[in-house]
Write a structure and sequence with these properties.
This protein is an alpha+beta fold and about 150 residues long. Pfam families: AsnC_trans_reg, HTH_24.
Length: about 150
């Protein structure tokens, strides 16, 4: 991937709805080479798809929670069970494997505190093999972007 490919990606991260003509102008290419590069980026998997950036509160999910989880054991069966179950929870937007005191961090969205309690009691606890759960409620967002920083 070269710097022109990165320019294309950054432009699309900022506005995924722009036309190829607009994209070509933004990255200083003619439309045909721009489209060819875009197709290669899509075919290679560098661009995995396009989606809308939706306001969770407007959608009806005003509560964002970071949930840090530590497993009791780190054997293959427990890890696989935890990860496969979490993959099926619609409330979980992200699940990251961590180093340090916790094994996973989840980004969860819910409509209210009752829904969060239900999520923990009836979804997370039922996975089993969890040693601890640490909950961090988000009460404001200073910065949120999906545009990668430019690199040389």
């Amino acid at each position: 991937m070269d710097s022109k490919d990165r320019q294309i990606i950054r432009a699309l991260q900022a506005n995924g709805r722009m036309t190829n003509q607009e994209l070509a102008e933004k990255v200083n290419l003619s439309p045909s080479p721009c489209l060819r590069r875009l197709r290669i980026l899509e075919e290679s998997g560098a661009i995995r798809g396009f989606s809308a950036d939706v306001d969770a509160k407007a959608y009806g999910l005003p509560i964002t929670v970071f949930v840090r989880i530590r497993l009791e054991r780190h054997n293959e069966e427990d890890v696989r069970r935890f990860e496969s179950r979490v993959m099926g929870f619609d409330e979980v937007l992200e699940c990251h494997v961590l180093t340090g005191a916790f094994d996973y961090q989840l980004r969860v969205v819910v409509p209210d505190l009752d829904a969060y309690e239900d999520f923990i009691r009836n979804r997370i606890h039922r996975i089993g093999g969890i040693a601890s759960i640490d909950t961090i409620f988000v009460y404001g967002t200073v910065k949120k972007t999906s545009v990668f920083p430019a690199i040389a």
